[in-house]
């Protein structure tokens, strides 16, 4: 990997960039990884990259093994680098073993041991509290600003429409959304509420507020935190697999993402807040990790915390704690031990409890579209449920292909250089097309709530405008009824809404603003499901004597629940886009609170996954990972090709020899020359160049820090000083430069395979151990090296894809 940051800065620069919390200053939102590599094996010269130059101090022959004390920065990782899972877990075991042994010596050490064991649970508590509080703040703010586009409350501008009319004494049940305290913009500006001119004023103000919110969102992201754009789930999956993207989970990203998420949702764009809430929760987890040494100093332990934080994010997004844990396990986590499962459950529980205490929607529920159905489903209805699953799979595959094509066009053309203009154009088109239709004008969460709703006698929605041909005094469930004019009008409006949502979401997801995909996908499926549900309901009403209905649906009975079809359709489309199965069903079950609807949800989710997988193997998040070239090894895919390690390792035949360090014959100047002329992030150490017998592996970052620290603290270290990686260095003759012993930074047990090892095993090793690199030997002699990037490029090549697409772009 190109480690320019470690070739040009002083030793203090290593300390300043050693935290994931620090914001990385990048000029644009696109990240350029094209010159980076994870321990490349070949000796390349990079023009203009030879700036590493350590000055020497030659004063005395005093020898000091300065590595007896740990050096700040040694053992940490560069930006856009992959962590060494094996080393991190080994360090944590050593730390835990030391604490356990000391706990037997004194009471204070015992207390320290107990606090260390309890710190993980305390951290989960803080993450849950902070995530739930931020989610409540986002929900309340987004609800208010969404209503602000249509009017304002004269009793207090901070009240949204619903809260404004709660305490009004002049509200009728039929017109409960209208109260004198709430004024539309036409009432405030021209003192009119009816007529063409008032409509035009309201239309103009709606579009103007939408453009203002979108402009503020994209401007804040571009100026202060470029990493706050998108949903964040593809990057979080990559980070959890061991990759480091400094600043992505930092303080500024958290602040800007929270603010701009409210603005983006309020602008009326076809996006949701659920995906970004996972990013927000992971930012909370990463920042709070710095309060605990155990997690601040160990990247592997920190990723366990981030897995739990992702569960808390989904918990507050959907009000589904169990679904959040399963989502983290199924979709985002790379390493998920049993104790992380327990802690994820606890963090999700605390987050959900915090959000419930805030009660952002005023309905004592965790989500806006909580519903309960009372009519059981019939076996025959599995047929339309499966049809909804097929629709969801087709929509998912279509969306992924078109969205990835558009995002690729954005990255490879001039379009990507003007993110503000792109956001404003899409916002203007969305707002102009959305205002005339009441189902596109309302927020997407409210739309889903409307579609999920099971119509009752008191519902005034057009979707519930049925002809009442029964005796209302009988009580009980409402029977199926003929659709009235309002229902038919709503069907046409919903059909137009479906077309708009399908098209506009393709261009919205991936813009340089926070944008989630859960809610838009669920809206598409819910609309399709409601349309099908109403059709089935009317078919059962007018043709209840048909063979498919007469055995279970008698005249005057409540047979079909259109809201259930909307819920199943929402699950199908979300599953088709994300390819979630188990976690999706549990999330939808927790939304509705009905155990008896699990089978329809399972049938639709599995059908949508099968159909979508038949048309393309990748979910939307995996597709964006591949588009961005992140070094992510998908654990779900099998490698079935019969290639060997020698076919993938470098150097290849006719390539320059592998760049190595010898254990006792290289000077400081020799090592500094290799560092300055190469971009590799590590070097094998051998006994001698002739024998090529492997001794260990040393990281470039550790070498630079150690040499620079030695020049400062060890008198007499000069360019001619010999570097020893052996356990015992020979006596130093008088009047010669002192030696520099660096054995403590040497990895004495690098993972090795023979040249005839099948790549199927090598790929499995990289996946399960999280390796950065693997050395290849033959009869004990070092032959070459295989990096994670080499494995990714080989997998792409075997799949007939462009291997260069793995280059981070």
TrEMBL record:
InterPro entries: CBS_dom, CBS_dom_sf, Cl-channel_core, Cl_channel-5, ClC. Residues 649-713, 745-805 form the CBS domain. The chain crosses the membrane at residues 118-138, 196-218, 305-329, 379-400, 420-437, 490-510, 517-536, 564-589. GO terms for cellular component: early endosome; endosome membrane; Golgi membrane; plasma membrane; synaptic vesicle. The keyword Nucleotide-binding applies. Residues 1-18 have a biased composition (Low complexity). This is Chloride channel protein.
């Amino acid at each position: 990997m190109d480690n320019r940051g470690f070739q040009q800065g002083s030793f203090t620069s290593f300390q300043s960039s050693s935290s994931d919390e620090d914001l990385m200053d990048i000029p644009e939102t696109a990240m350029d990884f094209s010159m980076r590599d994870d321990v490349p094996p070949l000796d390349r010269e990079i023009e203009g990259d030879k700036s590493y130059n350590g000055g020497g101090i030659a004063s005395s022959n005093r020898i000091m093994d300065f590595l007896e004390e740990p050096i700040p920065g040694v053992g940490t990782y560069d930006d856009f680098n992959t962590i060494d899972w094996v080393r991190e877990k080994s360090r944590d075991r050593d730390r835990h073993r030391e604490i356990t042994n000391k706990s037997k010596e004194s009471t204070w050490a015992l207390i320290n041991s107990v606090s260390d064991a309890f710190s993980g649970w305390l951290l989960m508590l803080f993450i849950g509290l902070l995530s739930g509080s931020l989610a409540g703040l986002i929900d309340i703010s987004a609800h208010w600003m969404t209503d602000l586009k249509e009017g304002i409350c004269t009793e207090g501008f901070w009240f949204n429409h619903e809260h404004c009319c709660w305490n009004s004494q002049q509200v009728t049940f039929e017109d409960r959304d209208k109260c004198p305290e709430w004024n539309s913009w036409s009432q405030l500006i021209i003192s009119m509420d009816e007529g063409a001119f008032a409509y035009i004023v309201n239309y103009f103000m709606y579009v103007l507020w939408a453009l203002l919110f979108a402009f503020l969102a994209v401007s804040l992201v571009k100026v202060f935190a470029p990493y706050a754009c998108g949903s964040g789930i593809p990057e979080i999956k990559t980070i959890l697999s061991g990759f480091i993207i400094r600043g992505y989970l930092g303080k500024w990203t958290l602040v800007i993402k929270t603010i701009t998420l409210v603005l983006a949702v309020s602008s009326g764009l076809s996006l949701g807040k659920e995906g970004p809430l996972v990013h927000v929760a992971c930012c909370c987890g990463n920042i709070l990790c710095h309060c605990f040494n155990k997690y601040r100093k160990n990247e592997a332990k920190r990723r366990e915390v981030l897995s739990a934080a992702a569960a808390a994010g989904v918990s507050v997004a959907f009000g589904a704690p169990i679904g959040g844990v399963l989502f983290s396990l199924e979709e985002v986590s790379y390493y998920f031990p049993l104790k992380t499962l327990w802690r994820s459950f606890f963090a999700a529980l605390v987050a959900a409890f915090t959000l419930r205490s805030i009660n952002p929607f005023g309905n004592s529920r965790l989500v806006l579209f909580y519903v309960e159905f009372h009519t059981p489903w019939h076996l025959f209805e599995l047929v339309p449920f499966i049809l909804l699953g097929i629709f969801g799979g087709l929509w998912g595959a279509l969306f992924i292909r078109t969205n990835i094509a558009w995002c690729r066009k954005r990255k490879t053309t001039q379009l990507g250089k003007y993110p503000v203009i792109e956001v404003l154009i899409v916002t203007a088109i969305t707002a102009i097309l959305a205002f005339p239709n009441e189902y596109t004008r309302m927020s997407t969460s409210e739309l889903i709530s409307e579609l999920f709703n099971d119509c009752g006698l008191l519902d005034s929605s057009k979707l519930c405008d049925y002809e009442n041909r029964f005796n209302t005094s009988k009580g009980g469930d409402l029977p199926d009824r003929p659709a009235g004019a309002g229902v038919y009008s709503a069907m046409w409006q919903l059909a137009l809404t479906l077309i708009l949502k399908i098209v506009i979401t393709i261009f919205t997801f991936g813009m340089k603003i926070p944008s989630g995909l859960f809610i838009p996908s669920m809206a598409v499926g819910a609309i399709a499901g409601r349309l099908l549900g109403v059709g089935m309901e009317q078919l059962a009403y007018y043709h209840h004597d048909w063979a498919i209905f007469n055995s279970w649906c008698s005249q005057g009975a409540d047979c079909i629940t259109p809201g259930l079809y909307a819920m199943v359709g929402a699950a199908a489309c979300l599953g088709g886009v994300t390819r979630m199965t188990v976690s999706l069903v549990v999330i939808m079950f927790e939304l509705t609170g009905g155990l008896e609807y699990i089978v329809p949800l399972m049938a639709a989710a599995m059908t949508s996954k099968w159909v979508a997988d038949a048309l393309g193997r990748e979910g939307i998040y995996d597709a964006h990972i591949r588009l961005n070239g992140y070094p992510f090894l998908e654990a779900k895919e099998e490698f079935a090709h019969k290639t060997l390690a020698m076919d993938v390792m470098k150097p290849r035949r006719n390539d320059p020899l592998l760049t190595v360090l010898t254990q006792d014959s290289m000077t400081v100047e020799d090592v500094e020359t290799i560092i300055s002329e190469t971009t590799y992030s590590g070097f094998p150490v051998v006994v001698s160049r002739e024998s090529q017998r492997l001794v260990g592996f040393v990281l470039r970052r550790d070498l630079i820090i150690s040499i620079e620290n030695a020049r400062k603290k060890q008198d007499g270290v000069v360019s001619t000083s010999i570097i020893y990686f052996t356990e015992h260095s020979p006596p130093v003759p008088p009047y010669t430069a002192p030696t520099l012993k660096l054995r403590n930074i040497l990895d004495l047990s690098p993972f090795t395979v023979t040249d005839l090892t099948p790549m199927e095993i090598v790929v499995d090793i990289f996946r399960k151990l999280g390796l950065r690199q693997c050395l290849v030997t033959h009869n004990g002699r070092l032959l070459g090296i295989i990096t994670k990037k080499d494995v990714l490029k080989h997998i792409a090549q075997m799949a007939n894809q462009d291997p260069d697409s793995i280059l981070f772009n």
